[in-house]
Design goal:
The chain has a domain at 3-84: Roll (Ubiquitin-like (UB roll)), CATH 3.10.20.310. By secondary structure, it is mainly beta. 23% of the residues are buried. Helices cover 4% and strands 59% of the residues. The strands form three sheets. The protein has a 16-stranded antiparallel sheet with strand order 4-5-6-7-8-9-10-11-12-13-14-17-18-19-20-21, with helices on one face. The two termini are 25 Å apart. It has helices at residues 29-33, 46-57, and strands spanning 18-22, 62-72, 75-84, 88-96, 102-113, 118-128, 136-146, 154-171, 174-193, 202-221, 229-245, 250-262, 272-285, 290-301, 311-313, 327-329, 331-343, 346-361, 372-382, 390-398, 403-409.
């Protein structure tokens, strides 16, 4: 959006007396006010108004955001007119994840709960692996996130989950048996924003815990390295986000990391430490709607709860073209690169060429030059009426199994 696109900019030679919003039937004005740079009683600045318009768009709540200047009772008013997306979905779920897990049930999804930018997911569904041929069970969960309380530097998120499912007890190609697994989860994370603005861009610290109680009932064979018990994990970390949302692409960077640990002092039956760092960059190109999107991840751990592996690689979220959980270990490196290009007069359709490179290693056998690489093509369809929803289809070649692997999802890869 350019500066000369502001209607009424000729009035921008005096302080802004008031700020008004139109079209926000659900979203509270406080959510919008804390994102804008142009404030009341400050000299009017076209540059600040343009930046404020983009900041509101970055919330991901609106399909359009327009600003204009007008005189009201001989005083300058800045007005933002927004077009809200659909924030609430209550739908039966019959879906297939990008990792070939079939899911059937119900999910309630709120992306702007109470008009305060809160996010809530309530899910109850049956899940079956390997396109319905593998083990499965039932999962119930509640996730709630408050990015930032009004007038505060703090945010909060929590999760409640319960699942009961049949699982195959296998590790790195070795099968031990099968069991009925039942897990209860409670997680809580608090945010502390240290950015200069009152919005949800910039730097934040976070800290919290996750409690998990698992019971294993052996059905056949033996448990191998797997155990039941109680895991209490403490988490601290930081993230810096400067990410801008255009209608059909993103621009900016995200950088973060976390350190988590569990031992007797946290109340856990298991002892391990884990460190993760991640970075993503969304680089716009000229001549049309084109982007290069890059994500890198590095994880190091000295163990995990319940006898599981710290990391595994493969599937539609990490390394497309490799079977989910193909290899596991204590150290993980992943690099994902995507070239995105919109279809001419239909920019909501975008085609993608991607490459994924990475591997996992045991701590005693880290060979960073030994990498697994896959590539493929994909298609993205932006659902303009829904918030945070892009239909994704990726096709990759699995060289080891000599077959094409297809991934379908309603979320972007990263």
């Amino acid at each position: 959006m350019s500066a000369d696109a502001i209607p009424g900019e000729d009035f921008c030679n005096q302080p802004v007396h008031s700020i008004a919003f139109a079209g926000n039937r659900v979203t509270k004005p406080q959510v919008l006010l804390r994102e804008i740079d142009q404030q009341v009683n400050q000299p009017c600045s076209i540059d600040l108004i343009v930046d404020s318009t983009q900041s509101i768009m970055d919330l991901g709540l609106f399909s359009t955001v327009l600003a204009d200047l007008l005189m009201v009772d001989e005083q300058l008013q800045l007005r933002f007119t927004v077009k809200e997306k659909l924030y609430f979905l209550a739908i039966p779920r019959i879906s297939r994840t990008s990792d070939a897990e079939l899911r059937g049930g119900l999910q309630l999804r709120f992306d702007n709960f109470l008009g305060r930018l809160h996010q809530m997911r309530i899910t109850s569904e049956k899940r079956q692996e390997d396109d319905g041929d593998g083990p499965g069970g039932y999962v119930h969960s509640l996730d709630y996130s408050i990015p930032r309380f009004f007038g505060s530097d703090y945010g909060l998120g929590f999760e409640l989950a319960s699942d009961r499912r049949k699982v195959d007890l296998a590790l790195n190609g070795t099968e031990f048996g099968s069991a009925q697994s039942e897990t209860q989860t409670l997680g809580l994370v608090a945010n502390r924003w240290v950015n200069e603005s009152s919005g949800i861009q910039g730097l934040r610290y976070f800290f919290g815990f996750r409690f998990r109680q698992r019971n294993l009932e052996l059905l056949s064979g033996e448990t191998g390295p797997y155990k039941d018990g109680t895991d209490v994990l403490a988490i601290v970390g930081a993230e810096h986000k400067q990410l801008h949302q255009d209608l059909f692409r993103r621009r900016g960077t995200v950088l973060g990391g976390s350190l988590s640990f569990a031992n007797k002092s946290t109340g856990s039956d298991f002892q391990y430490t884990r460190a993760d760092i991640y970075a993503a960059a969304y680089l716009p190109l000229s001549k049309g709607i084109r982007n290069i999107n890059v994500r890198g991840r590095l994880g190091v751990s000295d163990g995990a709860a319940f006898g599981e592996s710290s990391y595994s690689i493969g599937g539609g979220e990490l390394l497309r073209g490799m079977q989910t959980g193909h290899t596991s270990g204590d150290v993980m490196t992943v690099l994902n690169v995507e070239y995105l290009h919109a279809w001419f007069d239909y920019p909501q359709w975008r085609w993608v060429v991607f490459g994924d490179v990475g591997n996992v290693y045991k701590r005693s056998e880290v060979r960073l030059h030994k990498l697994r690489a896959r590539g493929g093509v994909g298609l993205r369809w932006k659902l303009l009426s829904l918030s945070n929803t892009d239909l994704r289809v990726d096709v990759a070649w699995d060289a080891q199994r000599e077959r094409v692997q297809t991934y379908v999802s309603s979320n972007l890869t990263f």
